[in-house]
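Example 470, ligand flavin-adenine dinucleotide.
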Amino acid sequence: AAAADENDVVVIGGGPGGYVAAIKAAQLGLKTTCIEKRGTLGGTCLNVGCIPSKALLHSSHMYHEAKHAFPSHGVKFSQLEIDLPAMMAQKDKAVSGLTRGIEGLFKKNKVTYVKGFGKFVSPSEVSVDTLEGGNTVVKGKNIIIATGSDVKSLPGVTIDEKKIVSSTGALALPEVPKKLVVIGAGYIGLEMGSVWGRLGSEVTVVEFAPDIVPSMDGEVRKQFQRMLEKQKMKFMLKTKVVGVDTSGDGVKLTLEPAAGGEQSILEADVVLVSAGRVPYTAGLGLETIGVQTDKAGRIEVDKHFMTNVSGVYAIGDAIPGPMLAHKAEEDGVACVEFIAGKEGHVDYDMVPGVVYTHPEVASVGKTEEQVKALGVSYRVGKFPFMANSRAKAIDDADGLVKILAEKETDKILGVHIMAPNAGELIHEAVLALQYGASSEDIARTCHAHPTMSEAVKEAAMATYDKPIHI
Ligand code: FAD
């Protein structure tokens, strides 16, 4: 039996990976402690990621709709203003309510919460410099590293969170910048660019690669980029930032074509650096206990999430796989199930990805490019929201559903949706993929009318037969 002060499970990091692992462990009857240095639970996602960004995306969308869409719906008013402090306060209220909620869940499930910075002194002991001051050693039979990730810096670009901001600074700008330059056309850059663009910034996105969001299906990506351009977002692809001058009022970026060539200057009031994220394991003492990482700094784990050091596990953004909150949560549950002697399984091919712009883009499974590369014979079924009655009724009909199915068996290989609520619509497809469904399975399932979901049914019909409404 464990000594009174010894835990079955110690989790380092209280993000979606760590806090979910801790709650699940406690639910499985394991004595559990979670160590978090931030002072609040929920990690990157809740404090400076998913949640505050979605709050601002919603608020800015409301403003944008009021300005551009309400009149055509016959809703008129004489004055429309942005109250940025109130918008930020609403975001902060959402964040603080949710982080306190997790503290409540810890209490309910009897997870011990230690506030402080943890560092390995042995494979079963973590020394914690507590936020109150002082130090305590937390012992555990199993230790889960859930320390997440941090912003990837760009050489020569120093983030001051004022003129040159990371996503964290971009979530708390004190005023709407006239000109915002976003470096990196990944989902975080496009989401934050959308927020400020809707509130009035001129947004230019500079991207080294030839495409925005490289993981996206090519055909969907093209339409998506067109949508963003319609919203006045400008793109400079195949372009690199080679110099930054912050000496004047704003920022002057020196740009160069990715392949080399003539330089140009781009001026901005604020520059957002969103060129990716890297695992965060600084000061954790991985070297002390000999935990292996790969070239990208990600902790290597086996299929039970165990590192090369017995009893030490790792999950979430700190290990390979999609850097997404729901993936971290799945990792956390599966890892703890293994520790408790049960089976756990996470299939990274079934992890949906969503870009929460307007329209949203959501996908699961393979892109058409990936299916081609596999050499599988396939069929494509597509259905545009222009032909969907609900989308027309609400006058928000940009986008499509695209389904890829194996030609011979009709098994669904990938689903890509661009729609205002694609992030919700995708789950029917996730479930279908998880169950190994065929597109005919979706097509023969009764979908309520009038809903956007009917477009998923019609796209499924289009893979092996004909849709009705186009
Ligand atoms: P984290 O959430 O990073 O949590 C790790 C925690 O560990 C942190 O709180 C950190 O303080 C703590 N920690 C680190 N080291 C120590 C230590 N030595 N001792 C004690 N504590 C430590 N994902 C989505 O799925 N959907 C989204 O919409 C989405 N939007 C995002 C928007 C933005 C702007 C950003 C930045 C990210 C977004 N993400 C989104 C990604 C998501 O936030 C991450 O994938 C997720 O937070 C990873 O969870 P995690 O538990 O692995 O790590």
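Summary: The chain has a mean pLDDT of 97.
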